[in-house]
Amino acid sequence: xKVLIIGAGISxxxxxxxxxxxxxxxxxxxxxxxxxxxxxxxxxxxxFLYHKVGGHVFNSKxxxxxxxxxxxxxxxxxxxxxxxxxxxxxxxxxxGYPLENHLYQLDRKLASQVVKDLISASKxxxxxxxxxxxxxxxxxxxxxxxxxxxxxEKIWQCNLEKVSLEWLEGKLPTPDLEKIIVDNIFxxxxxxxxxxxxxxxxxxxxxxxxxxLSEGLNIEYGLTVDSIQIHPHGVIVNNEFxxxxxFTGDVRELNFIIEGLSESAYSAVKNVTSLLSHGTSxxxxxxxxxxxxxxxxxxxxxxxxxxxYTGNFSKFNNTNSQRSSCTVEFxxxxxxxxxxxxxxxxxxxxxxxxxxxxKSSYVIHESKTKKSVETVKSELAKHNVLLLGRFAEWEYFNxxxxxxxxxxxxxxxx
Length: 414
Ligand SMILES: Cc1cc2nc3c(=O)[nH]c(=O)nc-3n(C[C@H](O)[C@H](O)[C@H](O)COP(=O)(O)OP(=O)(O)OC[C@H]3O[C@@H](n4cnc5c(N)ncnc54)[C@H](O)[C@@H]3O)c2cc1C
Hints:
It contains 12 helices and 20 strands. 33% of the residues lie in helices and 24% in strands. The protein has a 7-stranded mixed sheet with strand order 7-6-16-17-18-15-19. A 5-stranded parallel sheet has the order 9-2-1-13-20. It has a 4-stranded mixed sheet with strand order 12-11-10-14. The chain has helices spanning 10-23, 63-70, 75-78, 108-123, 131-156, 177-185, 205-214, 254-257, 263-271, 336-343, 369-381, 399-413; strands at 3-6, 28-31, 42-45, 48-51, 79-83, 86-90, 93-96, 197-201, 218-221, 228-231, 234-237, 240-242, 244-247, 258-259, 277-287, 294-296, 304-308, 324-331, 351-363, 385-387. β1, α1 and β2 (28-31) form a beta-alpha-beta unit. The protein has 3 domains: 3-38 and 205-273 and 364-413, FAD/NAD(P)-binding domain (3-Layer(bba) Sandwich); 104-184, no CATH class; 277-363. The structure holds flavin-adenine dinucleotide. Flavin-adenine dinucleotide (FAD) binds at residues 6-12, 30-33, 38-40, 53-54, 56-58, 224-225, 248-249, 280, 361-362, 389-391, 397-400, 402.
């Protein structure tokens, strides 16, 4: 079977490998960039490893994903297992993450107010209609005002009442009052929590993962697909016929590049053009050594919302320097100068090295998002066009969930 995959991010690379291993199909992949990876792409800047988006680390609770993934790598020699040491910067103090487990680190007056609010929130049985109400009902007014509202408003750059609850399922912890109290009494540490450790490539960051997964595949780089013609038995792309197309790009762009769909498929494709996303900007910096892995910054003294200490993930991430490295992350589009202006407000004597803006990083779910994405998926499948990945399926995927989705696509569609 002739299959074309658009995009060599983790989704495209995974599905290509799985098709070959499980179905004996050798797909072609076309990728706009000059190298594989998509969001997990890394560069090296003056000896420092630079994650152009985020600071990608790997972990999963899914056994089938773990078995497949570790079949591709030498876990002992090519990866390091790192303890996650995340903190929140609040009123110039570092408080443990997640905040609700570290109330004993707050001053007494504040802690009493937090507990009072948690108790009254726990008595509230109102059904939450949006993300803001969910936060308020789960954590109470004081924790929301000091952390959950300002942090999430920085990230989402929108009124949290507009963020639907659909995307939350299984993605955010929903601790109840009893759990919060017990975790605080016993000072539950991060190392007892899920995702308290993660795996990280010894060399090359997440680019190493993309490079390995791309080995042996038929990938054309530097080729942006801007026209897809539907054919009764498949699709024609750049004058080549394929029986099936797997699209891992941004579903909103299909409206402008696809032709020959049925009326219902056209209207579904048109409908998703109004989906909302937002981007991130980040700046790689040299920094003083620290034992942190992540620092969350809810307060408004800076536009940055977190620092990812990628220099601590592997010793090979900082060659050529006694200093360490980190990326400072911002929501939305900031120029390099705007980011540099923020660095003096942050800890660690940060010296800028390189910056990037990623137009789309986070998908936003509104109330009708799920339904319209389901419709476009099923309409396009009738035309042999399958959607896969973070922006094609409009899901808040991590690498492991993107791989899981590739697995189910191969199982169900081939
Ligand atoms: C800030 C941030 C931090 C994150 N941290 C983590 C983490 O620590 N761990 C984790 O597991 N996950 C993390 N994630 C999630 C992870 O990045 C994604 O789940 C994953 O990379 C999505 O891969 P994808 O292949 O679906 O999409 P993408 O990576 O976006 O890949 C799509 C590819 O398709 C190509 N493409 C698109 N359109 C076309 C076209 N028309 N023609 C040719 N090529 C095209 C693009 O160039 C791109 O390479 C993070 C995400 C963000 C935004």
